[in-house]
């Protein structure tokens, strides 16, 4: 492995370690509280649009990307 390849691999690992990605599931009210808390702490990077879990299910699913540092 060349020096350039090692440097590139190290930079990619550092970028990957800076974020946590997760799916959260809950009622719209519960999700709003979680997203509000994440944004107030400055950790929220991205949040997806809500996706309904099912026809008879009131819960929604959202994707979050949070800063770890």
Describe the structure.
The chain is α+β, with helices and mostly antiparallel strands. The protein is built from two helices and four strands, in the order αβαβββ. Strands 1, 2, 3 and 4 form a four-stranded antiparallel sheet that branches. The longest helix has 15 residues. The mean pLDDT is 85.
Task: Classify the helix fraction into a percent range.
Answer: 40-55%
Shape: elongated
Structural class per helix/strand content? Answer: alpha+beta
Mean pLDDT: 85
Number of helices: 2
Q: What portion of the residues fall into strands of 2 or more residues?
A: 25-35%
Task: Reconstruct the topology from this structure.
Layout: H1 3-17, E1 19-26, H2 28-40, E2 44-47, E3 51-52, E4 60-67
Antiparallel strand pairs: 1-4, 2-4, 3-4
Summarize the structure.
By secondary structure, the protein is of the alpha+beta class. The protein has 2 helices and 4 strands; from the N terminus they run αβαβββ.
Keywords:
single chain, 69 residues, alpha+beta, 4-stranded antiparallel β-sheet
